[in-house]
Write a structure and sequence with these properties.
276 residues, alpha/beta, Rossmann fold, 2 domains, 6-stranded parallel sheet, 11 helices, 39% helix
């Protein structure tokens, strides 16, 4: 695996690939099985796989969260090599951002729903960094995980608005045996937190099993009560949304997804399930 830390080096290398397809997996590191599944999917359908590891400061609302974000780069490199990744782009912040940079992309109400409500400005930071990374790597296909469902929609909207020539692929959520969605943040869970965190996937699965379009409000109320009754769990939202807009689902919604976010102990977790 080749490792680059500057944009000029990776761009020089990629321009010599002569029309080969490039699959790109952007990450913030602390890689787990979920990330590796993206690498494997990219590898199955492209000549070359590029992974980036960059803890992006502009998408963190809480400076402490940024400071505490795990950065096990040696372990990450080993995992990427084992998965057969071809190229790692691991730049410092100074390589991605200039001083006093300004960015704003109007992605409409998608920015302010769900995650956007609880993490104001988060998606501006996401679009800013993904735009930069796409401009550097110029991939054929971009692979993102379903666990960040709203992020996938936000990036898709950016690609559409800015007319970026890249294909988008959403990869399924990888879960632990007991149902917990894999996340880099799971390492912060205590043993008790880990047990309590299972209520997220249990509640989402309950919603899927009991889904009835006529009773969405009642289902959401019951699901919120389930989350609130679990010790150590402080839910922020659980919503049944239209899979295309993330606005509340209704009889006209062709695809429907249930999404949730909660603090479990000191750790914020998100999860979702596609209902139809």
């Amino acid at each position: 695996m080749k490792i680059f830390s500057t944009r000029s080096e990776i761009q020089q290398y990629l321009t010599r690939l002569n029309g080969k397809t490039i699959g790109f997996v952007p990450t913030m590191g602390a890689l787990h099985r979920g990330h590796i599944s993206l690498i494997e999917q990219a590898k199955a359908t492209n000549h070359v796989v590029v992974c980036s590891i960059f803890v992006n400061p502009t998408q963190f609302n809480d400076p402490k969260d940024l400071q505490n974000y795990p950065r096990p780069i040696a372990a990450d490199i080993s995992k990427l090599e084992a998965a057969g990744c071809d190229i790692l782009f691991n730049p410092p912040v100074s390589e991605i951002y200039d001083d006093n940079e300004h960015w704003h992309l109007n992605i409409g109400q998608l920015e302010f729903l769900l995650e956007g409500e609880f993490r104001p400005g988060h998606y501006q930071g996401v679009t800013q960094v993904v735009y930069k990374l796409l401009d550097i790597v110029k991939p054929t296909t971009l692979y993102l995980g379903q666990k960040d469902y709203q992020q996938f929609m936000v990036v898709s909207r950016m690609v559409e608005i800015l007319d970026i020539p890249v294909k988008m692929v959403m990869c399924p959520i990888e879960r632990e045996v007991d149902g917990l969605a894999m996340s880099s943040r799971n390492i912060h869970l205590t043993a008790d937190d880990r047990q309590h965190s299972l209520i997220l996937s249990k509640t989402l699965n309950w919603l899927k099993t009991n889904f009835d379009i006529k009773n969405i409000f009642q289902l959401e109320q019951d699901a919120m009560a389930m989350l609130q009754s679990e010790p150590g769990v402080d839910p922020e939202y659980i919503e049944i949304a239209d899979g295309k807009t993330l606005l509340p689902a209704n009889e006209n919604s062709i695809s429907i997804v249930a999404l949730t976010a909660a603090r479990v102990g000191k750790t914020r977790l998100i999860d979702n399930v596609v209902i139809r």
